[in-house]
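Escalation from tier 1.

The customer reports that the assembly of two entities below gives different structure tokens on two consecutive runs. Tier 1 could not reproduce it. I'm attaching the input and our single run for tier 2 to review.
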Amino acid sequence: MYTQALNVKDEPTAAGDPVLEARFQAHVDAELKIEPNDWMPEGYRKTLTRQISQHAHSEIVGMLPEGNWITRAPTLRRKAALLAKVQDEGGHGLYLYSAAETLGTSREQMFEQLLSGKAKYSSIFNYPTLTWADIGAIGWLVDGAAIMNQIPLCRCSYGPYARAMIRICKEESFHQRQGYEIMMTLARGTPEQKAMAQDALNRWWWPSVMMFGPSDTESQHSDQTMRWKIKRFSNDDLRQKFIDATVPQGHFIGLEFPDKDLKFNQETQHWDFGEIDWTEFKRVIAGDGPCNKQRMKQRRAAHDNGRWVREAALAYAEKRRNREAAAKIAAE
Amino acid sequence: MHETPLFAYALRLADNALILGHRLSEWIGHSPALEEDLALGNMGLDLIGQARAFYAYAGEVEGKGRDEDKLAYLRDAKDWRNVLLVEQPNGDFAATMIRQLLFAAYAHPLYAALTKSKDQTLAAIAAKAEKEIAYHVRHSGEWVIRLGDGTAESYARTQEALDELYAYSTELFESDDVERALIEAGIAVDPAVLRPEWERTVNHVFSEATLKTPPQSFAQTGGRSGRHSEHFGYILADMQFLQRTYPGAAW
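Tier 1 run:
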């Protein structure tokens, strides 16, 4: 996964050079990629740095709820697949931090922002994984929602981000199919397994629908990102696309969605759905989801417990450099 | 449980790989750096993959319809055949890397020799595993050197891990009647012959790392005959939970 539209505010554009800005916009309008050494407006740089780093943070935090089931995966095939999936997420985090670094912020700085609570990550990972079916639901719904968000990002105007997204989307679509296959197996299994699948859908459906961010009427900040061709579709359009694709998949395996207003609209050819509880969304984003504190505590613990290892690696590298330099001098 | 030697041998190879792979998988998301999450994940996947291949073969040799999951999820501790080293807790990163080095430096020449086994299935699995485990030796060896020759703290932690885990390597080189028959038939590898190469590998790393090889001390053994450490039951409780709670369900 895992981007989430986080209602990114546009940065005020510093009074820049109008000629450079016009040239930049013409480049973007022509669907050409902006590369790290190209001139870009400060607001573009800041918006992208924030979006890409939030996306990277989401990958890293997202390793925790799924990692929670690696040791308990019910078969060796599932265990290997889940381990590989969580490892893919770490890999996505790595490409994304690298893409963000091309904009001038180091991975250490971005990490610091995550651990201090300054940077956000996708709020979906503040929900707990309580049963094995949650691993299926995350793959099917959360990765499914992420793909809807991310496919348009493969065409993002910023080259390094767009290229990272192409590879990420390929892996995500594999994860999504794998998640759906877990759900299908459970839904067709024993009554207890089916109940487990239904319970997971009940808990993950609305948070997944919320992953697309606030409704277009609330989100006033996407004009600039649309003009810069960072964003291509509105939150509501993407959300509708996700619901239209996902509902028939759920029905096909005999599961019900926890939305009494969900029905197919013959006129629009889309699924109508009920009111989203935006109070919950805001509460979880603000830090009061079921696992916000736990996730950050685990991330900080990994960082703190690993400090001596990172320090040792640096100290060793320096000793080696010094020894090599000394050997070179001795040889001369 | 009466076991044929070939079944028992394949099971030993599988159990070592699975338990160590399981231990490594506990690190994912909690390691000192993102690159290490990936590397530990890779090594875990290699080992779980090796285990699956050995289990599948063990099940086939046994001929009682037990597949990889029946073997991994429905045996209790006394029927597990892994050495005590691989079930030791992860500890800190130094302990995990020392454990990995001690095991991989043994498994690498083992798999290399097993490629010449008269049993073609074992030889084929070993051929793939040998390449994978070579990376484990390199990766863990490089870390042990960095940590040993890094800071005062990393040195102290790494020497402590080595002092604690070293004695468990004795068990790697033990053989019993089950293996002896297979060794004579050219199917299994005599673990005693692996020891010189193992010593060369680990001692080279320890010397680069400025670590002291611990003196030979009394070694706990018994994993191969099903006498495990207290830690082991928790691995099974964790790993087998779903299969035990919902008997007969397909996942």
